[in-house]
């Protein structure tokens, strides 16, 4: 099974089942309303307007159900522009909403006309059965409309069986699922460092250190005996001769 088949989608299967149920129930109700309108025309001068509107609602619902059930498969096979417009989400939503509205109005109008009598004749029982199937058809299309709106909110209108002519599911809009490219920003760290360095250079105070001054010499003592610069060589000194003994 193809990855783009409508039944693959988790919401596509319940929605298609609701379309099929609405088609079957609408067909049964349409046949009953056809019988009642024919019966009224044969027995009386004409059928009530509510019955005529129910007949129109049944015919519209049957044609809508056929279009909703078959058009995805036809578009999956053909993939033309005409079939693409048939399975467009806006077209599908409009058809389902109209079928739901028509069945609701028809069920209310016919129920108000017939009421809840104690039926003895077959025509009365048929009318009650037709009204019941009209309500069932309304519930089926209302359920399909709810699933369709849920698909809209979850996928933002990008339904699974809506494809381009190539048979490929349309890509998501640019605002969803696509990250915006990050613009390259200028490297401000180097500029900030150079700016801080220039700022410090402008406001820095130059301190001139004085040259080293030699310490003054200590004053010499006039009474001090000058010391020879070099020590005398004692190896060649002659010792004085001893004095003769002094005799008193």
Strand content: under 5%
Q: The biggest beta sheet, please?
A: none
Question: How many β-strands, per DSSP?
Answer: 0
Radius of gyration: 55 Å
Shape: elongated
Q: Supply the helix-strand structural class.
A: mainly alpha
Keywords: Membrane, Transmembrane, Transmembrane helix
Region (Disordered): 212-248
Transmembrane segments: 16-41, 53-74, 95-116, 128-149
Pfam family, one: MARVEL
Structure commentary:
- By secondary structure, the protein is an all-alpha fold.
- The chain has a domain at 17-155.
- It has 6 helices and no strands.
- The chain has helices spanning 12-43, 49-77, 81-86, 89-114, 122-155, 188-203.
- The protein is elongated.
- The chain starts with 11 loop residues before the first helix and ends in a 45-residue tail after the last helix.
Task: Give a nutshell description of this structure.
With 248 residues, the chain is mainly alpha-helical. The protein is 58% helix and 0% strand. It has helices at 12-43, 49-77, 81-86, 89-114, 122-155, 188-203.
């Amino acid at each position: 099974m193809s990855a783009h088949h409508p039944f693959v989608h988790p919401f596509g299967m319940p929605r298609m089942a609701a379309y099929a149920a609405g088609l079957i129930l609408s067909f049964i109700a349409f046949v009953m309303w056809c019988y009642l309108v024919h019966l009224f025309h044969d027995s009386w001068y004409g059928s009530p307007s509510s019955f005529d509107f129910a007949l129109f609602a049944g015919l519209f619902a049957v044609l809508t159900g056929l279009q909703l059930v078959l058009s995805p498969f036809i578009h999956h096979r053909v993939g033309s522009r005409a079939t693409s417009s048939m399975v467009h989400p806006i077209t599908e939503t409009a058809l389902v909403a109209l079928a739901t509205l028509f069945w609701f109005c028809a069920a209310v109008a016919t129920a108000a006309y017939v009421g809840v009598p104690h039926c003895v004749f077959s025509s009365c029982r048929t009318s009650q059965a037709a009204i019941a199937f009209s309500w069932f058809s309304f519930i089926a299309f209302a359920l399909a409309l709810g699933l369709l709106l849920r698909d809209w909110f979850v996928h933002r209108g990008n339904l699974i069986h809506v494809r381009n002519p190539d048979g490929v599911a349309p890509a998501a809009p640019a605002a969803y699922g696509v990250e915006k490219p990050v613009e390259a920003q200028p490297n401000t760290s180097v500029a900030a460092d150079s700016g801080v360095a220039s700022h410090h250079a402008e406001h820095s105070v130059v301190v001139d250190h004085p040259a080293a001054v030699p310490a003054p010499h200590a004053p010499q003592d006039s009474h001090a005996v000058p010391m020879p610069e070099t020590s005398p060589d004692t190896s060649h000194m002659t010792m004085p001769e001893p004095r003769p003994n002094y005799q008193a």
